[in-house]
Every structure is written in C-alpha cells, then in structure tokens.
Design brief:
single chain; 450 residues; alpha/beta; Amidase signature (AS) enzymes; 11-stranded mixed β-sheet
C-alpha cells in the first residue's frame, strides 16, 4: 500500500489471514516474523510510532509459539501475531504514560481483559504505541511526548490523526499486524482514515474497558486498527464470541446519506471520493437514500459538556491544576472546559444524549446503514498548523465522528481513495449491530478494491 524506504517487506499488507497462511505453510515462522518487524521498526524509527518496544519478550514468546505450532497446537488466527497496544492501556511489565509526562499510570490500572484475551489467543505484545495526551485529541499532535509521522507521505510530516496515532502509524507502515486503539469521539476512525487503513469503533460496552485510562466512561470504547475488515472481524469474534457472517451482495441494501454536518465544507478530494464510492455501491445494487439528522450539529456543545467533566473527574481537580501548565496545549484547553461545567449542565447533556440516541436508532427503520466521509479533509501537514485558520480546521478532524459516539452507534472507517492522500468512508449502524456492520463493511471494502 505504501512505498516505504525499508530493507524489510510488509508481512501484513494482505491482512492477518494471509500472513497466518504463510506461517502454517512453512514459508515463515513466528520468530522470523518478530525479527522482521523489529528490523522494520528500526528502519522506520523516524515514524515515532512507539513509546516502547518489548523486543526480548516478543522474541522469546515467538520461539515458544514456533515450538508449540510444530507440536501440533494451533491457538488460532492471532497466534504469533505482533500487536501494538495504545499507551493508555495497561500491559504487564511495560510502562504506561497515557501520552503524558505526568505520572498517571495508576489511573489506567492493571492489565485489562482485552490485553488478556489477546495473550490467550496467542498474540504477541510487540510494544506500546504513542497517543495524544490522555487520548483527548483528534489530530494526533502531542506536544508532550511527540507526534508520530504519518507514513502516507515520507517527505512531509502530516498529522496521523488521533488519539490512537501510534497504533495507526504502526499498522499502516506494516510494523505490526494489528494494534489496539480507543474511541471516545473518533480516536480509532480518524487515524484509520488519515493513514489509509481500517478502524472499528465498537459499541460501548461490547468490549470491557478495564485497564484503560478513563477519558469518558460514558463514551469510551476499545477497537482495532488493522489492514482489512476481516482482521477487525477476527477481533470482534475473539472479544464477543459472535461470528461475522459473510455477505455476498449489497443488492437492495439501503444506505442513508445524512446531509447536515457530515457533508459540509469537505475537501474536494473527500467529496469526489465519497460520491464515487456511493456510485460504486449503487452500481452493485445498493440504494442511496437522502436523509437528514440535523441534531448532529449538537455535538459541538454536547461532547465537551460530557467529556470535559469526566476527564477532570478521572484526573482529579487538584492534580489537573498541578500539571496543567505542562500538558499539551490543545488537550489542556479541552480538559479545562470540564472545570466550568456545572452538574446541572452535565446531567442535561447526558439526558439529551440519551434522547438523541433513541431518535437516531429510529432512523435505521428505513435504512440499513449510514454512510459519511470519516473526516472532512485529507491529512494536513504539521507545518500548516502554524496558520491559525488551518489549525482551527484541523481541530475539526472529529466533526463527523463525534456524533456517532453521542448517538450510541457502532461504526467503522475503511479506505475509499484510489490514489494520492487517503480518505475514509464511515459506515454506521445501531448499537450492538457490530457483526452486521463488519459483514457489510467487508463487502463494501471488497467492492472498492475491484
């Protein structure tokens, strides 16, 4: 997918299943996989995707799994797969920074069920990936601990999207086969969009969030960043036990295109890619339904009035005041809003969110899914952020994704570009319809690659 200057090959460009087939056919071992990924990480160190890499433990585990597989024990599709973990998620024996220079590891707690499940499935924890400070930011910029370099352009430093920036960069660059992210207002879908990969925002509560920094317990979810929708489906089945049934046709599928907000002020490339994508689906037999849900505009005040107080609650008022001056500028500003929100305002925002969630769910009585651009623009250059107008536009990276969290929907971003800088297609379905979402997205992804 990317023309990166490395001495190693991308082992995961066709997804987890293709890589696993090579291992089981004897073309590649788990140890060779980890060694290749370590070399690739070294070649691409300038991408700044990782907070730390657990090289020795990863190699030791790979050797043990090679012996286990040779003995006839196969733990499944994730066995021996190098995985990155967003650094707001606790991992035993590895540090947790939460993207901050402040000592906040205790707020994430101990290793949680998602990392436990990955280990039980045979995945190899390759390292901790960089994140926006406290996961509160959509561009991927982190003044405190560094901003990863988006590998879609090796000549110019472009934003990777946030807050799961390092996870997206590591997957997009082929350093790991899969990485974990979290999504509170778009933090899986935005970096997936900007780096040209797949990102699944799971339904809140589908995956347990123990062992994760609590940015907003109301809206937080964990999800994978990966190369194919099939990879996301593997993770879904691992975490829920629910299989994803393959779809063979989109004929008759009704996709709604909400106009207000989601189609406003798009880059020309985003508009053209989106319209071409919708036309491709219509040619395959899907039916476009023009619709509107103007309540999406309410995200501008609902999101900060919910998330702001919740992150202040997680950090503690006194501690936030203590570290405020050293926190990333944008993160500090967004979190500080929580200090100004009264209990009455917060509760009113929560009540409105629940009302809008019910209202949004009703829209799916007449359509199977919503389709929107994931982000309104292509990944900007870091240098352009020096222009106040461009910086303000960059902060709108989450404009199309935040309503999804507020409306309690599940969603996924898949690549919809054919060339040049990446753009993403956001596919949305009701709460807990993740298996159906993944099945539909897999078919859409296949159509777009034809």
């Amino acid at each position: 997918m990317l023309n990166l200057p490395t001495t190693t090959s991308d082992l995961f460009d066709r997804g987890i299943t293709s890589w696993g087939k090579r291992v089981r056919q004897g073309e590649l071992s788990f140890t060779e996989t980890i060694n290749s990924c370590l070399l690739r990480a070294e070649d691409l160190e300038r991408l700044n995707a990782f907070e730390c890499i657990d090289a020795r433990r990863a190699l030791d585990t790979a050797k043990a799994y090679d012996a286990l597989l040779q003995s006839g024990t196969d733990l499944g599709p994730l066995m021996g797969l190098p995985v990155g973990i967003k650094d707001i998620m606790a991992v035993n024996n590895l540090p947790t920074t939460n993207g901050s220079n402040a000592n906040t590891a205790h707020l994430s707690g101990s290793e949680g069920p998602v990392v436990n499940a990955l280990r039980a499935a045979g995945a190899i924890i390759f390292g901790k990936t960089r994140t926006v400070e406290f996961a509160l930011g959509a561009t991927g910029v982190n003044e405190s601990r560094g901003t990863p370099w988006n590998p879609v352009d090796m000549n110019t430093h472009r934003i990777p999207g946030g807050s799961s920036s390092g996870s997206a960069v590591a997957v997009s660059a082929g350093i790991v086969g899969l990485a974990m992210g979290t999504d509170t207002g778009g933090s899986v879908r935005i970096p997936a969009c900007f780096t040209g990969i797949v990102g699944h925002k799971t339904s809140v509560g589908k995956w347990p969030t123990d062992g994760v920094f609590p940015l907003s317990p109301t809206l937080d979810s964990i999800g994978p960043l990966c190369r194919t929708v099939a990879d996301a489906a593997i993770m879904h089945t691992l975490m829920t036990g629910e299989p994803v049934q393959a779809k063979t046709s989109v004929s008759g599928l009704r996709f709604g295109v909400p106009s207000t907000l989601f189609l406003d002020d798009l880059d020309d490339k985003v508009t053209s890619d989106f319209e071409r994508t919708c036309k491709r689906f219509e040619e395959a037999g899907a039916i476009r339904v023009e619709m509107d849900f103007p309540e999406a505009l309410e995200r501008e005040y609902l999101f900060p009035d919910i998330v702001g107080p919740e992150i202040i609650s997680s950090l503690g008022v006194d501690f936030f005041h203590e570290i405020h001056a050293d926190v990333d500028t944008v993160t500090a500003q967004r979190a500080a809003h929580g200090l100004t929100v009264s209990a009455t305002t917060h509760l009113a925002a929560q009540a409105r969110r629940k009302h809008l969630s019910r209202k949004a769910a009703v829209q799916f009585n007449t359509v199977d899914c919503w389709l929107t651009p994931t982000c309104p623009f292509v990944p900007m250059t870091i240098e352009s952020f020096e222009d106040p107008a461009m910086h303000a536009r960059g902060l709108l990276a989450s404009r199309n994704t935040q309503p999804v969290n507020l409306f309690n929907l599940c969603g996924i971003s898949i690549p919809m570009h054919q060339s040049d800088l990446p753009t993403g297609l956001q596919i949305l379905m009701p709460d807990s319809a993740d298996a159906k979402l993944l099945a539909t997205a897999q078919l859409f992804h296949t159509l777009l690659k034809q």
